[in-house]
Amino acid sequence: MAAPPRKLETLLGPKGPLAERIPGFTHRPQQIAVARGVDTALAQGRPCLVEAATGVGKSIAYLVPLMRWLDKHGGRAVVSTHTLALQSQLVERDIPTLLAALPEWDIRAAALKGRSNFLCLQDMNTAAQELWTQGDPLFRQVLRWSNETDTGDVAELDFSFSGWSEIAANPDTCRQRECRHFDRCFYFKARKAAEDCNLLVVNHALFFADLRLKKENPNGPTLLPKYDAVVFDEAHHIDDMATRAFGLEWGSGRVPQLVRRVKRLVGDSEGAVDPARLAALEALNQVVVDPFLQAPSPEAYVDDLLSSDADRDAFQDRRDDLCTTLDALARELTALADRSEDTALRDRAAGLARTATRVSSELTQVTRDDAKPSPDGAEPGYFRWFHTRRASQSFPARTTLVKTPLAIDRTLQNVLFADTPRVIFASATLASGGRFDFLKKRLGLDGAEQEPPVEVVEGSPFDHENNCLLYVPRHLGPPSSSAEYVERVAEEVLELVEAARGRTFALFTSHRMLRAVHERLWDATDYPLFVQGSMPNGRLVDEFARAGNGVLLGTASFWEGVDVPGPALSQVIIDKLPFATPDSPTQRAREEQIKAGGGDAFRDYSMPQAQIRLKQGFGRLLRAAGDRGVVAILDSRLWTKGYGRDFLADLPTCPRTDRREKVYHFFDHVAEAPAPLAPAAEPVASR
Ligand code: SF4
């Protein structure tokens, strides 16, 4: 086979090797424009920001120049995704398809997941001998699977096993090379494959866990092998993921879980661990978390809840008691490990001692007041908050204490961009107002001291002008929480559902509105209803698509990543502009920070966030070239407020109306007309 052409325009062009060798490959000028931007960034050692709408074929647009660069220059690249679904698509479909079409390139691809996804054979063997697994049919299935699987990846199980965390690989208890299962160890096999490859696919959680380790100990062990370039797909999650990774979370379930494990370890053996200490730990844990569980709001600043000196002092005393008892348990377990002649018992006791020490030190860290940035700027200053989950039939009430950095720009510069300037951020929704200012500021890509990023914004290749109608009613008035307004919205949704003959996604910004609309539709429409929470999200979407005339009602998780091409989804209704809840601690902290710096929190933060979110919701409609339909945004502020025009300008260009008759007309005359011939299957370039 002849060597592949080097020019991107030829590679991705209508007569190129991809068009020749991949059935259904569609040449798109937007795809070539994105590939050129990525190529420039790789060649010049610069970051790159890419917004490429659905249908551009974004993953191929970055993979082709990336693979070409690796083939020419050597080294290793990491592609990181937010969702498992995209990771699977890249590993199982896109990359193998490209490698089959371009076999001359020296590309060895592998995927790596986080350690807790892998079965630990040592802990599995131990669990098989313990009481808690006896008679559990699911454990027996896991045991059978453990003897058959090649990967040990929990994703292979087609059922959920509640005891997975007890048998998953875990850094505290892992004996590494000393483990007698090391040669067959699933996690270390996956690590070895990652080291041998030059194109590694991971998820954002693992990528940032690795960066966090580098931040804490620049010369210490890492989770990922060394890399020379990174592509973040689904990059609109990067700000949140990085912020979370460089912060700290401490869950109230960690102490009870530790106590459970210690009890299993020592069983009935007298004197191994003081039972009174274990009872005290559970009681102290409860006392520490009680104020949060009883707080009037499910999430708030810690300082708002513990607002007086007396409250704070009492909390610190209780926390110190808990930490002291955890440290004492760690010493007791270490002593048990030291005197044990049973290797398995010794290793598990030592592992649990490390866990007890970690739980104690992280509780101290997460509750320490680090509000001010460090003088050298290396530490950004943190805000402390908590969120709670109410008790349910299956779960006890839980609280999570969180410490979140106010900024991540300096950290990213130090631990990522300084060593790896070739970082590509790609998403279908990344820009606001056609610009990346918001993201550049958050990620630290706007500094004068570094190379400016290459920026590419490519709109949808789909024909929105002819295939889409945007309906924004004025008669509902501005959004309000009044019962009367909620009723008017529910009535409007009912009318629109009837107009579209079902086939509707209704996306809500609040559960209250979702419930009200559900009640109204339940009484008044015969179209099948699919309501968030009634079954797992993936199944809900599958059943909705299968029904062909269904109505799906959902909140946050349905605004993005849901893909239903074809007429089963012909209308998207959005209840209002998706501004984040202003009283959430994260939102408040960011807004206060911007205001303190003299900025405009609405223009610089709330609005760009909401613009990106709105584009995500809008983007659910046209998923393939022949798709047609209506997007209805039930928020008159789009017409009446100055910022409404900015929101409208940020959406794909299509006819707009405030008259419902036009929606009826669209469904009677446009949406039902035969679709123009669309390209057949688009197995690779459909994203
Ligand atoms: S090497 Fe570590 S993760 Fe692997 S089986 Fe042994 S203890 Fe478990």
- Strand share of the residues? 5-15%
Let me know the largest β-sheet: 7 strands, parallel
The CATH architecture of the largest domain would be 3-Layer(aba) Sandwich
**Which ions, cofactors or small ligands are bound in this entry?**
iron/sulfur cluster
Per CATH, what is the topology of the largest domain? Rossmann fold
Number of helices: 27
Helix content: 40-55%
Would you tell me the structural class of the helices and strands? Answer: alpha/beta
Domain count, please report it.
4
The span between the termini is: 29 Å
Tell me the CATH superfamily of the largest domain. P-loop containing nucleotide triphosphate hydrolases
Strand order, largest beta sheet:
3-4-2-5-10-1-11
CATH class placement of the largest domain: Alpha Beta
Gross geometry: globular
Care to count the β-strands? 18
Structural commentary:
With 687 residues, this protein is of the alpha/beta class. It has 27 helices and 18 strands. A seven-stranded parallel β-sheet has the order 3-4-2-5-10-1-11, with helices on both faces. Strand 14 (529-531), helix 22 and strand 15 form a beta-alpha-beta unit. Helix 4 (58-73) packs across helix 5 and helix 12 packs antiparallel against helix 13. The structure holds iron/sulfur cluster. Iron/sulfur cluster (SF4) is lined by residues 120-122, 169, 174-176, 179, 181-182, 185, 187-188.
